[in-house]
Amino acid sequence: MVNKLVLENLKHRPVRTALSVLAIGIEVTMMLTLVGLSRGMLADVARRARGVGADIVVRPPGTSLIGLSSAPMSEKMVDFLRRQPHVTHAVGSMTHPLSGVTTITGIRLDEFDQISGGFKYLEGGPIRNRDEIIVDNYYARQNNLRAGATLELLNRTWRVAGVVEEGKLARLVVPLDVLQELTANPGKISQVWVKVDDPAHVPKVIASLKDQLRGYPIYSMEELTSLISVNNVPGLRAFITVIILLAIVVGFLVVFLSMYTAVLERTREIGILKALGAAPSYVLNILFRETLLLALAGTVLGIVFSYVTRWVIMSWAPASLTQMIVPDWWAIAGAIALGGALLGASYPGWRAASQDPIEALAYE
Amino acid sequence: MSEEPIIRVRDLRKIYRVGEVEVHALRGFNLDVPRGEFLCVAGPSGSGKSTLFHILGGLLAPTSGTVIVDGHDLSRLTDSERTALRRRMVGFVFQKFNLLPTLTAADNIAIARHIAGRNLDNDPWFREVLELLGIADRLHHKPSKLSGGEQQRVAIARAIVNHPAILLADEPTGNLDSQNSAAVLKILRDLNQRLGQTILLITHDPVVASYAHRVVHMLDGRIVDAEP
Questions:
Q1: CB of B34 within 8 A of CB of B214?
Q2: Which residues of chain A have pLDDT under 70?
Q3: Can you give the residue range of the structural domain that contains B179?
Q4: Which of A114, A134, A212, B35 is the most exposed place for a label (fewest CB within 10 A)?
Q5: Nearest-CB residue to A357 (from B59, B88, B110)
Q6: Domain chopping of chain A, boundaries
Q7: How far is Cα A194 from Cα A205, in angstroms, rounded to an integer?
Q8: Cβ neighbours of B158 in A, within 8 Å
Q9: pTM above 0.80, yes or no
């Protein structure tokens, strides 16, 4: 009976119900999209690092795990690493930030091809001139680029030599010496990718390198990809927490206003229920069930919306942003939305439950 | 009528405080209502009728005095005890019908039963009541689709669905035309005669009062006259 009353109440004010569900849906979408973006972009970085085909990465001292840094390490390190036992290849790369999270990477293409097996060209071919650039298919799609097209980056016009399949090293690749020159970092690199003769020798090589290069972060590929997580990116966890708190506040305010209006509108009906002998808990139960239903519907809508945001991102900005669908966060986001909604319903609920039946019945 | 009255009121007083002013709504009110009686309380506005209605219905606590309904002293009950009393012992019929607009007629009746912790399934007594009220074919309509007379009949059904000891009706025909008024009053009289329902009806309309066994007149919080 109470469920029927709850459903009828929600149907009675369809616009308010729809807006409440929509607002909670947006709250849930905010959480799922943010977490999905964080994980998606980190997974993307990890995937592209794995795509290099190296076994070990050596980074300059004091740098963060996610390589938005420029080039604080000498290129001589590459030669030093090549001389180490069991090392078959070592190639240096330089990463330079552009706008937002987009970076451009400089490599010596012939050396990189040896360690990685080379890019898979979907259009065009390798870089042959100093003003040429390689872009991956996501970047090409986002920016409507084809082989032979030109683009402006770092105050310079580049000709697209080739469009390659994404998932290897970087989205934008240029000759290392050109990037060093353009960024005033001659002879400097951001990291060295190392390949050893046998994967079984990786721990031994790492131990030897750590012994010789004190203070340098040196990771095996497995270690590097496992460390690329939300917890290891400075400030990201705090950022997610702040956005989730904002989402809770939004959900709280929406449900508070919705339920507050509902209680005011239904003052007389609450008076009727109380005249019939409904205890405060009965009235509270009705409002909390309404809130629960709004939060559940909002959560489902938010999950659907997270697929929509992923589709939009993949359609419009696949090179800049990558969003994962995060089913393990569905229940968490739903619980957070429900918590905020119940909090929002608690004051209107208390007001309804403590209403004087005589005054409520006289309410016009 | 030698048994204990179903309503016994002694020296009932109710004082409202409006700011620093005390308003004496009931000033030593006394009343006995035998079980099965159809009693009308008449009087002008401000005479204390509604306050009496609210106290007898357990909606309001008296300031002093004794109010015994079916053996329960209402003046000693807490808020939650009065709430529990309303579920089973009192049925209300209001001037404005007071049906829940989102529910059908059937659900408006069923919710009173649900609040009392009962269900309506296969209750032959209730089917008889619906026939008596003439609303059996209107149960699946919402209040907005019912006429005033039909809404008030649904409200009456809701009021008696839990077999209350007393049925309190506050100006039940105040929002009805003369034809529907007569129909509702006839129903109340039938409920009283055929089911033995004790009814206390508040009105200032002498025509309405004529349906009752007895009429008491109130003025300034006291009974000033009784008939017959």
A1: no
A2: 64-71, 100, 232, 234, 364
A3: 37-61+77-215
A4: A212
A5: B59
A6: 2-43+236-362, 60-216
A7: 10
A8: 276
A9: no
